[in-house]
Amino acid sequence: MHTIRVIPCLDVDNGRVVKGINFVDLKDAGDPVEVASAYDMAGADEVVFLDITASSDERKTAVKLASDVAEKLFIPYTVGGGIRSVEDFRNILREGADKVAVNSAAILRPSLISEASEKFGSQCVVVAIDAKRCAEGYKAPDENMVPDNDTARVTDPSGKWTIYLKGGRVDTGIDAVEWAKRAEALGAGEILLTSMDRDGTKAGFDIELTRAIADSVNIPVIASGGAGKCEHFAEAVTEGHADAVLAASLFHYKELEISEVKRYMQEQGIEVRL
Fold this sequence. Notes:
Elements: E1 5-13, E2 16-21, E3 24-30, H1 32-42, E4 47-51, H2 63-70, E5 77-80, H3 86-94, E6 99-102, H4 104-108, H5 111-120, E7 125-133, E8 161-165, E9 170-175, H6 176-186, E10 190-195, H7 207-214, E11 221-224, H8 230-238, E12 244-247, H9 249-252, H10 258-267
Parallel strand pairs: 1-4, 1-12, 4-5, 5-6, 6-7, 7-10, 10-11, 11-12
Antiparallel strand pairs: 1-2, 2-3, 7-8, 8-9
């Protein structure tokens, strides 16, 4: 088995790290540069910064954040939120980020994935997917919501998930598994998969969703949303087939230490970097 990464995620809103439950009820969790630096020292393999309101508020990710972090961080980091163009990719990467995560803009214009991949390499392109399980009787929204994206939409909701735009605020009706497969075909180098149903609940990752996505693509999948204890991280790998595991509030509020999670995973036979 290849080395599994443990990644803290910093959701950023107005220059501060925040955390909520099911994408709402946000609470302040500190300064992003200071928090990231502490994670570096604590043994994190990477750090992800997501400006969670950049798309919904029609703002661009602060390039300054990428620059400030570069001076303090000595592990790879990803910046996402409000990315709309190849120029946005260039600006973030130029300031020191190793990868750029894109969500809403890629759904609205899938060719952005291939454009960025061709320009900077697939290893720099992370497609973030916010997915939610379809309830019984689910009806997909009108296809005109995302006219430039012809990825299959959910018609039979049984055992399906759809992807959401603008920080989990708008349902597209697009099948999450089909979108992950298309993102890979367009040149994405990695999938950052967040279960909206599990986000912040500490009930465990959505193993079924994670496995469905991971088994459908040949690029790394980062499992996100729902971690509550060490066992959950191991399950995401052994049962969900994830290549990396990500958490936010657990690490922010010191409910679990990264080293503690890694030790447990190693005891379960999972290869990690200690």
